[in-house]
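[job 0412] stage=complex_fold ligand=uridine-5'-diphosphate status=START
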Amino acid sequence: MRAVVSGGAGFLGSHLSDLLIEKGWKVLCLDNFATGREENVAHLAGNPQFELVRHDVTQPITVEGSADAVLHFACPASPVDYLRLPIETLEVGSLGTRNMLELAQAKEARFLLASTSECYGDPEVSPQPETYWGHVNPIGVRSCYDEGKRCAETLFFDYLRQHTLKIKVVRIFNTYGPRMHPNDGRVVSNFIVQALRGEDITLYGDGSQTRAFCYVDDLIEGMIRMMGTSDEVTGPLNIGNPHEITVRELAEQIVRLTGTRSQIVFRPLPVDDPTQRCPDISKASSLLGWSPRVSLKDGLHNTIAYFANMLENAE
Ligand code: NAD
Ligand code: UDP
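[job 0412] stage=complex_fold status=DONE, emitting structure tokens
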């Protein structure tokens, strides 16, 4: 079995590639390194099951040989990254998705989209079920990402209706773990790196906004299970951890776990920052028999160890 993983050198794509390879798949990783890093897949170099091609998915591509699955993970994913690359982000969601759909169609491959909870925008319903259509600002600074992913989902379902492609759409909620980029600006990486460096921990707003954090291993397990479902199962399907906490509680927990002397300081809340986010995972539980297993404490412990090691080696 052979899979094409776009964005395979990123945080999630590299973990996904690892698990696929462990399960005996061959993996062709397509990445332009806009936000990913070669070191995320350095351990796979020389592995005959793994191939890395530098490619921008907004450009069409043909792939030699067969492909049984295409998993489309390419996209700047952190607010800091997509605010820096707004047009590129919208293009990955639209053009990039179209190109990957064409590839999947040509290979008659199963196609999974790494979509996002951002499709729900700043939700007025909580927890968010897949049936909720969302509350998204179409012209705001986050729109390039939110609307890009919503466009990607639309394309998926139009390809299903027009070409009977085998599609799977997964809406990923905030996921964290080793291989996050230390400068991606996401809350878990920011707080841990700040705590380990003894710098101020920057809480945006009053920290009362909520998120629900899923450890990477749980997420990837859910993805693989979704890939294994029958053709009628298209999603969209929420995958995330329903343990909802405030961002302030997250900061306090990271302070406790790292034993840092860093102070928590308050900074302005970014524009259109969602006030709450929590997945309703009842569909994933019943369809896949899946639910997250790793506690926030254990997941943070592993992530702190990863960043501590990285910072030590950088010195
Ligand atoms: P990431 O930035 O680590 O990975 C994205 C990868 O895509 C990077 O390797 C980057 O270089 C690559 N990429 C970007 N633009 C590209 C292009 N035009 N052509 C080829 N490659 C390109 O982010 P991540 O957290 O691993 O996210 C992976 C996917 O999961 C994204 O599609 C993201 O929207 C989705 N997602 C992630 C989360 C999360 O919490 N991590 C939440 C929701 C959705
Ligand atoms: N956040 C914060 N301090 C930081 C980085 C982020 O308080 O240094 C907040 C951010 O405002 C948001 C939440 O943490 O409310 C999650 O932000 P992140 O960028 O990780 O992802 P989002 O869920 O917003 O896409």
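The mean pLDDT is 97.
[job 0412] exit 0
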